[in-house]
Design goal:
mainly alpha
C-alpha cells in the first residue's frame, strides 16, 4: 500500500506541475492586462496536436516539437494580441468583454481542430522499449519522466525570466501596479505584448507535456483545462504566476490522492471543495495576492 501511495504522490506531482504551468501562463495574462483568456485550454490542446503532427505525421523526434511550438505559437500569440487585446484595453472594465472575445477565440480554435483532426482522440507513441522504468518500488512511464524533466526546466526558466531579467521585473511591476508603471514611463504596451505572447507559447509548450502524460487528447478537451487553470490561479493567487504553480501542484496532489481512495467522481468533488476551503481561509490564495 505504501508503494501505491508513493506512486500516486509522484503522479500527483507530475500532473500538478502541468496544471501549475497552465495556471502560471494564464496568471501572467490576467495579472498584466486583466484579460480573461477563456481560450487558454484550447491553446494547450493545440500544442498537443502540433506535437502529434511533428511526431506522428512528419516522423520527427519529439525534441523538434519544442522549436515548432515556440515558432507557431509565437506568431499566433502576436497575431491574437494585436488583433484583439489593444481594442479590449480601451474599455474601462475589459474583463467581461475579454471573456466574451476569448470565448469566441476558443470556439474558433476548437472548430479548426475538429476540421483538421475530426473528433477522434489522438495519442503519441514514442516507441520506448521498455515503456516503463522501475525504481524504489515505483513503476513510471518513461514519457512521464521526460515530461517531469521538461516541466522542471520550464519552471526554472519561468523563475529565471521573472526574477533575473529586466522584462521579468517589468512584468512583475506591471502586475503589482499597472497605473504607476505608465506614470514612470514603462513601455507598457511592449511589456503586455511580450507577456501575452510568452503566455501563449507557454500554453503551447504545456501541450507537449499533456501529450506525454495523458493517454489521449481530443479537440473538446480545452474547456476542462481552462477551468482547471482558473481554479489553479484562484488557489495560488489571481495575479501570482509562481503561486499558480504551487496551486497547480496542490490541486494535482489532492486530485490524485482522492482518486486513489475514493474514485474519479469523488475526486472532482473533493478538489473543488478544497478550492472553496482555501478561498474561505486565504481569500488572496496560498501565495498571497494584490488587493484591488
Amino acid at each position: 500500500m505504501t508503494g501505491l501511495l508513493l506512486q500516486t504522490i509522484l503522479n500527483g506531482l507530475i500532473i500538478g506541475m502541468i496544471y501549475g504551468i497552465i495556471g502560471c501562463s494564464l496568471a501572467i495574462i490576467y495579472g498584466t492586462m486583466k484579460i480573461v483568456n477563456f481560450a487558454h485550454g484550447e491553446f494547450v490542446v493545440s500544442g498537443s496536436y502540433l506535437t502529434y503532427v511533428v511526431v506522428a505525421v512528419f516522423a520527427l523526434p519529439m525534441m523538434f516539437a519544442v522549436p515548432a511550438v515556440i515558432l507557431v505559437f509565437g506568431v499566433v500569440g502576436i497575431a491574437v494580441y494585436f488583433l484583439i487585446v489593444p481594442r479590449l484595453m480601451k474599455n474601462d472594465d475589459h474583463e467581461l468583454p475579454s471573456f466574451l472575445a476569448m470565448y469566441g477565440v476558443s470556439l474558433i480554435i476548437g472548430s479548426l481542430l475538429l476540421l483538421f483532426f475530426e473528433a477522434d482522440t489522438r495519442s503519441i507513441d514514442l516507441g520506448f522499449t521498455p515503456a516503463y522504468v522501475k525504481f524504489a518500488g515505483l513503476i513510471v512511464p518513461k514519457a512521464r519522466l521526460i515530461a517531469l524533466a521538461f516541466g522542471i526546466v520550464l519552471i526554472a526558466l519561468i523563475w529565471w525570466v521573472l526574477y533575473r531579467t529586466i522584462y521579468g521585473k517589468a512584468l512583475r511591476a506591471t502586475i503589482m501596479n499597472r497605473p504607476a508603471m505608465a506614470v514612470i514611463g514603462l513601455p507598457y504596451k511592449r511589456v503586455t505584448a511580450i507577456a501575452f505572447t510568452v503566455s501563449i507559447i507557454l500554453a503551447g509548450l504545456t501541450g507537449i507535456l499533456t501529450a506525454l502524460v495523458f493517454p489521449a487528447f481530443n479537440p473538446s478537451g480545452g474547456m476542462e483545462l481552462t477551468l482547471i487553470a482558473f481554479v489553479v490561479i484562484v488557489i495560488g493567487g489571481l495575479s501570482n504566476p509562481v503561486g499558480a504553480i504551487l496551486g497547480g501542484v496542490l490541486f494535482g496532489l489532492v486530485e490524485q490522492l482522492t482518486i486513489l481512495y475514493g474514485g474519479q467522481t469523488l475526486a472532482q468533488i473533493i478538489s473543488y471543495l478544497a478550492l472553496i476551503v482555501i478561498v474561505y481561509v486565504l481569500p488572496h490564495g496560498i501565495a498571497g495576492g494584490r488587493s484591488e
